[in-house]
Amino acid sequence: MSKKMATRDAYGEALKELGKINKDVVVLDADLSKSTRTNWFKEEFPDRFINVGIAEQNLIGTAAGLAAAGKIPFASSFAMFATGRAYEIIRNSVAYPKLNVKIAATHAGITVGEDGATHQSVEDLSLMRTIPNMVVINPADGVEAKAAVLEAAKYYGPVYIRLGRSKVPVIFNEDDYKFEIGKGIMLEDGTDATIIATGVMVSAALEARKKLEEEGIKVRVINIHTIKPIDKDIIIKAAQDTGAIVTAEEHSIIGGLGSAVSEVLVENYPVVVERIGIKDTFGESGNGDELLAKYGLTSENIVEAVKKVLARKRG
Amino acid sequence: MEKHAEFKKIATTLRKNIIKMLNESGSGHPGGSLSACEIVTALYFKEMRIDPKQPKWEDRDRFVLSKGHAAPVLYAALAEKGYFAKEELMKLRKTGQMLQGHPDMKGTPGVDMTTGSLGQGLAAANGMALAAKLSNKDYRVYALLGDGEVQEGMIWEAAMFAAHYKLDNLTVFLDNNGLQIDGENKEVMNIEPIDKKWEAFGWNVIKIDGHNFEEIFEALDKARETKGKPTIIIAKTVKGKGVSFMENKVGWHGSAPNDEETEKALAELGGEM
């Protein structure tokens, strides 16, 4: 896991590929194309790149119209503005009519860092997950992000893809990685507990597993790249096999992965759960890694949560 | 024969159906539906290149009813045009039926865009018009905005966009009836000078009487001939037009006529069909 890559860079590369294979793909941005990497698409396909200016509501509304006329628009901005500012347009003009709009939003989560709380979207998964017809994807690394973008273009309907600004460890091998919407991936097996992680927390979960192994605790690690529709089977199986679950996400513990997993469990196979995530609070300016530590989103925090959940499991 | 008699007759038919379907549903928006009857008639029965047998025809002209609460006038026109059976009109807003309180493109043949939350339709129309340009298609896109609706900020984001991308295949009507739910535009939130605002945003602006077919057709001709910029036709209208007790009455924005009022309204419109 020595190689690192930002998922926004993978998005930029995926768009360049998509531009070649599908002439209906158009890309929209709201004056952040250099940051979201949509300018990589713009350089190769200037005629199919549309800048709407600093106007996220119009970004999504225009994408809806393009989709209604047969295009496959990828609309990009920062996660905060794409999902927050434009929420109601996404709901009413995109998801309700089930239009083929892809919202690929970068700079999600607290690792945006120095820009501070106004730019740190830790509610986007929650907002997007409650909308009917919406598929919600949160890739763990560059390989997964690229595959997700290519898959999203093949799927007909609204998709939200959450992308990050910072470089994160590459977990998967591009040659044999297969992305299937709605399908969780078991990365490591174990019997004592299961860590279910999403996005940047997947590599932290793998690190936590190693540390726990040294102490003789064997945990399963599952990567949930699709928050909605969520892979119920893999979650229920983990509960049945290990009896204890820890969720980990760079997002509020309200409404995101932790909530989604808990919902599946309470309705199907209740077991003890601990949730790692932002604990109903706003972030602040700072270095991304330092913020992850300050807000309890490290592999050490996952290790602690596993120990806690194991203690509860034993009762 | 009187000039445009045929279109006037259709507009009257739409009005009668609006009254009848709203009476049947017991809720809905008569005022802003009645004010747009001539505009919608002109579009669906003369201007637009459409085929009711192929509601999803790729090369058709599109219409976005951005003021989605005026759905009854759109439904009346679509039924009259043959997109679906007229009996459907009498099931408006009923549980499990096709015609929703606000337009639903997925459920209703002929509805080109889902609308209802004000301010969003112009951006969607822009997207359709831009798609035509990108695909070298010659279809045109039409949208109808309410005058209260232009208080939404998103309208002006979209107004900037349409001019920036020179969407001359887009023609927008502003149903300028002067009223919104809480009262007159000028009391609630003044939108004037509305023509100068659109001009300043780079649009071709045409002002007409929105109940005069001669002026509507002339404006549509001019819009088609205008190159390099989108056109907005600011149509001065009367809210509740055609039913004396509804005309210019704020109270008729969003309440349905009862049986007695329906009878009176239909009598004024020339009696039962």
TrEMBL record, chain A:
The keyword Lipid metabolism does not apply. Keywords: Thiamine pyrophosphate. Its cofactor is thiamine diphosphate. Pfam families: Transket_pyr, Transketolase_C. It comes from the Bacteria. InterPro entries: PDH/Transketolase, THDP-binding, Transketo_C/PFOR_II, Transketolase-like_Pyr-bd, Transketolase_C. Residues 5-170 form the Transketolase-like pyrimidine-binding domain. Belongs to the transketolase family. This is Transketolase. It comes from Caloranaerobacter azorensis H53214.
Automatic annotation (TrEMBL), chain B:
It comes from the Bacteria. Residues 9-270 form the Transketolase N-terminal domain. SUPFAM superfamilies: Thiamin diphosphate-binding fold (THDP-binding). It comes from Caloranaerobacter azorensis DSM 13643. Keywords: Metal-binding, Thiamine pyrophosphate, Transferase. Its cofactor is thiamine diphosphate. GO terms for molecular function: metal ion binding; transferase activity. Gene3D superfamilies: 3.40.50.970. Belongs to the transketolase family. It holds the Pfam family Transketolase_N. InterPro entries: THDP-binding (IPR029061), Transketolase_CS (IPR049557), Transketolase_N (IPR005474). This is Transketolase.
